Amino acid sequence: MRIQSEFVEGFGALAELGPAVSVFGSARTKPGTPFYEMGTQVGRRLVEQGYAVITGGGPGAMEAANKGARDAGGASVGLGIELPFEQGLNEYVNLGVNFRYFFARKTMFVKYAQGFIVLPGGFGTLDELFEAVTLVQTQKVTSFPIVLMGTEYWGGLFDWLRGTVLDAGTVSRKDVDLLHLTDDVDEAVRMVTESDEQVAPKRPE
Ligand SMILES: CC(C)=CCNc1ncnc2c1ncn2[C@@H]1O[C@H](COP(=O)(O)O)[C@@H](O)[C@H]1O
């Protein structure tokens, strides 16, 4: 069955990856823009700290993170998705897997990463972000730091969660505290890798 084979293929391709961080962000972020540059720096810094970089393998922020990772000589993973307006994996991916199903692909982002760094993005990015927060909140995954980058971009969402949503009692303080926010690349990388000390021993070699 196609669905099953996507999981098998994904698990097989990523089994030997070692520690990794998934980086998300808009497919529409253009090269030369500040957020593209931020993505490149995130990819580079993660590799310098000994991490593989996993992205959705597409253009924009994904491409930026893959570029940074590859240029720094690291593992640059792209988990591509078949879309009607297919663009293929970006040129900076050095380990690529293609998926037809978003849900199979999303499993890989969480299963093979120690945390998420989320650059400014749209519906796709929000989907990935909130799936991860839900998994952490419900303790389906543990010690999984999630860092949003771009204080101005995410600030409104942050305030809304800590105001309206928290006040309504639909989330707890502990839940909103799962999300970190920064503009600083080193700080973001530190946040996702620090708690890895608790996570690392649980991962198979
Ligand atoms: C120019 C364009 C729209 C290309 C679309 N090509 C894509 N290729 C790969 N992953 C994607 C693509 N679009 C959305 N995604 C997924 O959704 C996220 C970005 O969606 P968005 O641009 O924020 O909503 C990415 O992290 C990725 O996992």
From TrEMBL:
Segments forming a coiled coil: none
Catalyzed reactions: N(6)-(dimethylallyl)adenosine 5'-phosphate + H2O = N(6)-dimethylallyladenine + D-ribose 5-phosphate; 9-ribosyl-trans-zeatin 5'-phosphate + H2O = trans-zeatin + D-ribose 5-phosphate
UniProt keyword Nucleotide-binding present: no
Pfam family of the protein (one): Lysine_decarbox
Superkingdom to which the source organism belongs: Bacteria
Sorted UniProt keywords: Cytokinin biosynthesis, Hydrolase
Protein name in UniProt: Cytokinin riboside 5'-monophosphate phosphoribohydrolase
Species whose genome carries this gene: Pedococcus bigeumensis
